[in-house]
Amino acid sequence: DCVVKPQNLRVAIGTPFSDVINYCGGLKERPAKIISGGPMMGFAQWNPDTPVIKGTAAILVLSSDSVAKQVKNSVCIHCGNCVRVCPMHLMPNYYSMYTRKGLYERCLDFDLMSCMECGSCTYICPAGIPIIQHIRTSKAKIREKKNTKK
């Protein structure tokens, strides 16, 4: 909602985000967040000169009003929303809990590797817990440990 004239465009791979944004009339205000991809599976970008890559489906430029105010290091309120929305019928709340404690391999007890990282759990979480980041961290730590054993 920060872009003057939001549009759907086809752009060449390698085009900087800033060029795409300028083509759309520039910014209405300083953005709070720039996301490469959709709101659920996209990745925050800190550099507006990030290039468009083959997998870039969207560039979202959000104002501070649009970005949910998240409490840093908030705790799970056990609402169960993340479990209800999981298309794989997993238990993301456990992934987050064990990742925070550094117990990455305990996540395997809850079928961590079946998570497709859609981001629904993070999107729905009223406590603002970055569950998808915890999932990615645990997967990376488990793979790292597995690779060092070889």
- The fraction of residues in strands falls at 5-15%
Assembly of the depicted chains: single chain
Strand order of the largest sheet: 2-1-3
Which bin fits the share of residues in helices?
Answer: 25-40%
So what's the overall shape? globular
- Number of structural domains: 2
Instruction: Report the strand count.
Output: 3
Question: What is the residue-averaged pLDDT?
Answer: 89
Walkthrough of the structure:
The chain is mainly alpha-helical and 150 residues long. It folds into two domains: 1-67; 81-149, no CATH class. Helices cover 30% and strands 7% of the residues. The chain has five helices and three strands. The chain has a three-stranded antiparallel beta sheet with strand order 2-1-3, with no helix packed on it. A hairpin with a 6-residue loop joins strand 1 (33-36) and strand 2 (43-45). Helix 3 (92-100) crosses helix 5. The longest helix is centred in the C-terminal third of the chain and has 19 residues, at 131-149. The chain is globular. The N and C termini lie far apart (48 Å). The mean pLDDT is 89.
Write the layout of secondary structure elements.
Layout: H1 17-23, E1 33-36, E2 43-45, E3 59-62, H2 81-85, H3 92-100, H4 120-124, H5 131-149
Antiparallel strand pairs: 1-2, 1-3
Helix pairs in contact: 3-5
Compose a concise summary of this entry:
This protein is mostly helical. The protein folds into two domains: 67 residues; 69 residues, no CATH class.
